[in-house]
């Protein structure tokens, strides 16, 4: 059930404790893909997963459209909130969902920069609040595709070519590929020296967006949907009682 | 320009200092109107205003979909954030917009419960940050209609019948009207005794939703658009230098 | 009972759950009225209301003398706290009052700039703490007079001419009126373009202070007292149980 | 100049950089002395010091009437704010004073429980803000009297017998003395084992209030005034430039 | 230079902008390894790296001994701070180091649970403060060994057998191995379902501590030292100017 | 039991509710004593006290090595955290200790600048959390020696000459004494005019370090140990129930 479109009375009639909360960002995705890529994809996966889940209803909360994106701040149009703000928003919204009995929440994430803050806040919610929250980053759960992630690269471009083709500027993909970076900055001893993406990519792209056609996009959405359904099933079955002290 | 759909390179090509940021809520709107009413209407007004503004481009940020709605928390599906969280989000997003040169921002609001927090954060931004932010609540700026506001009442029902008719459950409007409240709780000496809407309305409605047909909705959108354009023009012309100390 | 003058043993002997907490500001009130106007008037109304309340004792807390007044910061002598600080103070003090059994608190306010923050913190207290708090702004509850409010204008000048005439500089009232502003800044589409009063008034005055003589001041105090008594009675009778979820 | 009673134009005419800010508490002071003792005495000392200072004008801010008093919370009528709230209030108010050019501020304190938080916030202000703030606790600066302080004991009782005799309940002083405690709780190895005064005094008194007559009160006010004047002179002369790094 | 052992005058004589700050935890490490494992190892690597760095002096700050370890809270003796506290400590300490000219800081980390919070705070410091901070988790930078990490498993046991053999309880290693877990809980769709380690390990161990002898420990320290030196060299050479806006 | 060196299983076998938490600083201690003086001495006293306590086991937490030391920031090598950070760390760590049943905690302090913040947080813990925390500053509890404290003066120099003689630079003690200050800055009316030690001491020393030989150091450690044991005994016996309201 898409919560934003439902009435409260309809929502009240649903018998479930499962919800998904899509979180993404509004940040540069190269010259060819939209700033909203990460929340568009997160929302698509969340909705598809909820639809595909066969063992009951799943509430789909409206997406959080701005995330932890300061690393892209030098590129025009990038919006960002402080990690504290992001955590507070997720915690408050999950708390609201839980107050209505939807207290097993998968936060469906479409932005790598959100991952650390999201993991932290989900653990805090599970430990301290009356809810169980689990983070799910869709592009980590698409099998072998995952290793191609990049930024505005093959996966995201493919995904949108499948779901929202009008948002990909096809006439710029070639240039996007040629002017993009091969890798996510300079790493030394497993530490990334750059705090900002602008230090290593001129047009914002990492990876080759030509390597992601619409068919691959369909496969990605399928894989992400399947992974999300599996996770929802596990979350539904999970004993969420906290472990006892090991005294 | 809808920021979420644009690329960063397109956004970079825009020559303006004006932006609109839609903020609303996800909260009960009676048995007949969707939980997303307030962010749907805010976004519609923001987009229409930006389109209608004739004196240059206006950036349209993606909507903030959850607001200060704890007053509706007893109704299933209502989501809310703490006022502190709401203010932090607005401040961070306006700061992002301003970092790209879009430093005159009208925050287009669709939820009465956001008003106090929004006024505070806009004043803080204008005084302390490198940006000028002005709150605009659309239903306060629709002429004589404004006095009919209520909640999920004539104005909001009319608005959605015009813009998103599939989201109004027509078969429930009659009951929504009959079971709703006439007024926003009990006021004594200009103080509202209720902290929660559930104290005075059983189905969440205040006012008569039958009094808002689609034609009225069209008129409301026109009026709000016109008001927003007038405000954008004034904001564009405003001398935003802070007054000097009156010593 | 004026709490600051009482001993703890006397306070302990009172059998009531009602308290009033006066909050105001220290901020410019033109060349003719004192910086303390707003806390002086709030305290006077709170004390008069407590005295006039006929259905039991009412505790009068000492006034909070500095409020949310950054909008007057360009005028020498204006003091202000951040809205967060103001809310924290009100919440802590109401919590203290409630700990002693005085858990129905009317916060008697004398400054328009406090209103938004005060409404927020009272709702927070009522929802989250073991207390019931209601904001009351005296000049909103004086009948038809209310529409004349302004700033350092007819109402406040009249009030002080009645209660503290030595604090009104009579020889400056004429100039105060002539150099003051007619309205609270420039409004476009129901949005105020100014973050600071100094943008629209040179001497800090809004409205005509000549229109408020001591008789009017007496009438104002009477009306405010009556309104406060009515509110105290309603607060005493209020069922403060939070509504149940509407599931 | 009493700021609350002055107009902004009068305040604007003052040529000084010195201000005093009285801070106290509203907390139990035994069965014979008022809950407001600490802010009444702080205000009296601040005002007397400002009047007596012969080398220019001193601004007297309105008193902060509630302080860090949780240690007295078991006694009815005691009000308290969290230390964070207290520090925020002092910092905001001193910042306001400094914005008008009164950037050398002595915070005149009447409550021992405020001392630690006050020292911290004054150091923070001096190091980080555009102001110089120094804490002054009057009963620490009255010569040999200081060692008799207690709580609602000889010093405070004497002081009020001199300045506000109607607030001392003379008929209860004998009992106050007899039922009070001799010392501030149980100390072991210079650590106080009690977090709350109620652990060691039944009526809230520490020390013998009979030992403080009005003449002693007059002497105390004189001594405190003289100490404050000496401090104001030193503060006026102080080079407030921060030391350079010792590299 | 070990900062804690040096005098300020000696510290003042050092000509460098490089510092290392060891951060770890105090948390369960099975029945055979000490609670302090993570700060002991972090400190050892930091000190060895500073000693081995051949291109100038490196300041070694004292270790932060408690970290983000709530996931181990069910095991007796585990200490933890909130992630906000951890970030504040790292930010304050790095700020102190930078104030003395040591403004290129590698934070040498010995605890996986610190990683997310550490990455966030280092990015914040680099973007907002006058310092450049890079996180380095030693066991991520020991070549092929890294894949064996576990918890109190082969790597940490080996490391301590080399550096602090008296802290490994050899007579319990066999049982530690037998009763430990093979993997870090149950993962579904790349999401970890457990918020606490006690959900998947009875004795706190993950991996086989028998697989880490002292020779391996020596190799680990060498590898970590080499990696840290390489990172220090890169940090010393890094152009830390923030990228310009890509307008 | 030294917690950092113990295993969780050993910690689990301890039957006590007593713990000590050493807190100090890393800050200048003149040209002759180490920056770590305050956490080295605090840790030594805590460990000696725990060892000497004859009535059961005492847990020794690892030391907090950085404290509230901004007052020494002009001297190279001084590290400091904000008071808020320090309080958060102490509160979180004491909360962790208490979660394991060690809920009577003496915080053993070696730095005067920590005292105010430490008293505040211990009171907060005792009042609001499930723990009882008492601050103990060792140099306040060494009898007549206490009056000689200074900074890097006779007491601290003596202490380290006894416990860590290699950390005292004997060849600089004479100069340290000659160039040091006699007193802790300029006091007027019991207020200290200096926010920073650099305002009154050129080399960081206050008092004469020559007056503290190793024998005196041994006596100091003995006295501090004895005082701590007495305090631990009192803490063990203390009825930690909060007093009831005095209604």
From TrEMBL, chains A, B, C, D, E, F:
Any single GO BP term: riboflavin biosynthetic process
Entries under InterPro entries matching the protein: Creatininase-like_sf (IPR024087), Creatininase/forma_Hydrolase (IPR003785)
MF terms in GO: creatininase activity; hydrolase activity, acting on carbon-nitrogen (but not peptide) bonds, in linear amides; metal ion binding
E.C. designation(s): 3.5.2.10
UniProt organism field: Halobacterium salinarum
UniProt-recorded name of the protein: Creatinine amidohydrolase
Gene3D superfamilies listed in its UniProt record: Creatininase (3.40.50.10310)
Keywords (A to Z) from UniProt: Hydrolase, Metal-binding, Zinc
PANTHER family registered for this protein in UniProt: 2-AMINO-5-FORMYLAMINO-6-RIBOSYLAMINOPYRIMIDIN-4(3H)-ONE 5'-MONOPHOSPHATE DEFORMYLASE, 3-DEHYDRO-SCYLLO-INOSOSE HYDROLASE
Required co-factors: Zn(2+)
A Pfam family this chain is assigned to: Creatininase
């Amino acid at each position: 059930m898409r919560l934003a479109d439902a009435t409260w009375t309809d929502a009240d009639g649903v018998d479930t404790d499962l919800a998904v909360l899509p979180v993404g960002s509004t940040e540069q995705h190269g010259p060819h893909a939209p700033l909203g890529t990460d929340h568009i994809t997160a929302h698509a996966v969340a909705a598809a997963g909820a639809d595909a889940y066969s063992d009951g209803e799943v509430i789909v909360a409206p997406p959080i459209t701005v995330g932890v994106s300061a690393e892209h701040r030098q590129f025009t149009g990038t919006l960002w909130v402080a990690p504290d703000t992001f955590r507070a928003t997720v915690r408050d919204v999950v708390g609201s969902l839980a107050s209505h009995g939807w207290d097993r929440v998968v936060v469906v994430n479409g932005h790598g920069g959100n991952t650390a803050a999201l993991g932290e806040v989900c653990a805090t919610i599970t430990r301290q609040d009356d809810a169980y929250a689990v983070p799910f980053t869709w592009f980590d759960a698409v099998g072998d595709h995952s290793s191609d992630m990049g930024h505005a690269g093959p996966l995201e471009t493919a995904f949108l070519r499948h779901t929202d083709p009008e948002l990909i500027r096809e006439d710029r993909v070639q240039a996007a590929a040629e002017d993009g970076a091969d890798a996510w900055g300079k790493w030394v001893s497993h530490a990334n020296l750059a705090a900002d993406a602008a230090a290593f990519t001129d047009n914002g792209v990492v990876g080759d967006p030509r390597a992601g056609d619409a068919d691959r996009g369909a496969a990605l959405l399928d894989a992400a949907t399947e992974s999300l359904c599996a996770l929802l099933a596990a979350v539904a079955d999970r004993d969420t009682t906290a472990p006892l002290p090991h005294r």
